[in-house]
Amino acid sequence: MLKDEKAVVVFSGGQDSTTCLFWAREQFREVEAVTFDYGQRHRLEIECAKGIAAELGVKLTVLDMSLLGQLTQNALTRSDIPIVHEEGALPSTFVEGRNHLFLSFAAVLAKGVGARHLVTGVCETDFSGYPDCRDAFVKSLNVTLNLAMDYEFVIHTPLMWIDKAQTWKLADDLGAFDFVRERTLTCYNGIIGDGCGECPACKLRRAGMEAYLQTRGAGKEDRR
Ligand SMILES: [Zn+2]
Question: Which of 55, 73, 202, 222 has the highest count of CB atoms within 10 angstroms of its CB?
Fold first, then answer.
C-alpha cells in the first residue's frame, strides 16, 4: 500500500539519514528530501546532502533554519565552543528542540507536496540524551501534527530500535553499504567517508561498522 504513496525524508547527508533515504526509496512510490541549513559548523554537510540527493535523483529542498543560531549557543553552530560529551550530560552539540522543529517544518513541507509520510533517522538505541529523538516524543508529535494540520501523517523511524551495527546491516541489505560508507558525512571535523577517526561521531560510526563487518565476515548464511 505504501508503494503508492509519497514520503519526505529528513536528510542531513549523514550515515543515518542516507540509510533512511535508501530505505524510503524501497518503501514508497516517490521520495523527496529536506535538509536544514542552520549555520552548521561545516557547510560541507549541506553540499554533501545536495550531492547525494542529486546522484540518487531525489528532489531536495534546503530550508533556512539559521534562526536556530539566535536561539542557542552550541558546538555545532559556534566554532569557538568545543565538542565535549561528559558522562550523563547532554553533548555540547545539542540544539534544544532541534528534531522537534525539523520534523514540524518537514511536515508542513510534506503536506504541501502531497506527502503524508515522514521519515527520520532518529534513534533511541545510541541515545545521546536528546529527548526529541525518543519514540514517545515522535509518537506524540505525530498526533500533534495530525491535529495541527488536519492530516494523516505517519512518521517512520526505521532506525529507532537498532544500533549502529544494525544500521550498517540495513544499509548493506539495501545494497547501499559502500555508498553510505564513502559518501556520507558524520564526522564533526568535516571529513567525508571514514572521517577523522577521532571525534565522538567517528568513533561511534567506526565501532558500529567494525561490529557489523565481524558478523558479516562470519558467513553469509547468518544473514537474512
Ligand atoms: Zn571525525
Answer: 202
pLDDT tens-digit map of 149-165: 999 999 999 999 999 99
114 alpha carbon – ligand 1 mean position (Å): 37
CB atoms near residue 8 (< 10 Å): 28
The domains of the chain, with CATH numbers, are 2-222 (3.40.50.620)
Compute the distance from residue 185 Cα to the ligand 1 centre, in Å.
9
Q: How far is the CA of 158 from the centre of ligand 1 (A)?
A: 24
Q: 105-137, pLDDT tens digit by residue?
A: 999 999 999 999 999 999 988 656 789 999 999
**pTM higher than 0.70, yes or no?**
yes
pLDDT in tens, 69-119: 777 665 555 555 555 555 555 455 567 888 999 999 999 999 999 999 999
CA 44 to ligand 1 centroid distance, Å = 13
Q: How far is the CA of 141 from the centre of ligand 1 (A)?
A: 32
List binding-site positions for ATP.
11-21
Phi, psi of 67 (to 5 degrees): -60, -20
Q: Ligand 1: distance of its center to the CA of 41 in Å?
A: 13
Q: Within 13 Å of residue 202, how many CA atoms lie on the same side as its CB?
A: 14
**Burial state string for 64-94 with b = 16 or more CB within 10 A and e = fewer than 16:** ebeebbeeeebbbbeeeeebebeeeeebbbb
Cβ atoms of 112 and 118 closer than 8 Å: no
